[in-house]
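Known limitations

Files may contain more than one protein. Parsers should not assume a single record per file. Below, a two-record file is shown to illustrate correct handling: read the sequence, read the token line, then continue until end of file.
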Amino acid sequence: MTASEVLDLAGAASLLLGALFSLVAAIGIVRLPDLLTRMHAATKPQVLGLLLVALGLTLVLRDWSAVAVLALVVFAQFTTAPVAAHMVGRASYRAGQVHTDLLDADELTDAVDPDTGYRPNG
């Protein structure tokens, strides 16, 4: 087995595993009960799935221009997904769409007025 065949096989396995993670994320978005768990399903496995797909494409294509574009895509996903999830989580908490009885810890109780959704002192 040549090195090229090994890289193609590793790339195919990575693509398949990345697609599986993306499928799990999509199923989680549809099946999970509340906003925060759906948000978790939308960010964690989806980002890992994208990383594995990009790795698989890198191993299969073996072209520096493709690697540069894929690295840019992964960087953009790594920087925007946590920020977007944080903003959606805080906005949904302020809008009262979070089931606080399902939370293990609620650190926003003192920071957000339940009636208005904004800080009590400002």
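...continuing to the second record:
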Amino acid sequence: MRTPRRAARLALLDPTGAIFMFRYDDAEAGIHWATPGGGLDPGESPRAGAVRELHEETGWTDVEAGELLCTWEHDFTRLGVPVRQHEHIYLAAGARREPTPEAVARHPEDRILGWRWWPPAEQADPYEPLWPPPLATLLAGPRGGPVDLGYLPVAPSHTP
């Protein structure tokens, strides 16, 4: 049985369409890339949680959550606990920059291995999994409102 977990993330795009992503290492799902975000605090809205998580993981305080891009569910292990996470992913716009040193110092506790700005041309054929798996398609396609992706299994990656 998996523990339910609510989370939210920001798909932060720079003016060229590059997206800011973190490289994570999960005991169950392996190496993967995901947008900044994480679990919601009790009573916190997904939109507020996405902005709070971005601030905690990057140090940036000037980014606002825009329209809801998608929702999805997936399984992974967090702090040794198997969870089924329901995520809201919001679009956001921002300048290309690096996380603050204070934020980077906290990355090991979240199993964040690194980060990068992914240009649109590389998003369609990533060398390691992107979460959610259809993220590149969602970003490249026309937006007619939020997409509910439902439950998507995430395949383990064993890339060093």
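Parsers that stop after the first record will miss the second one. For reference, the second record is described as follows. The two ends are 29 Å apart (CA to CA).
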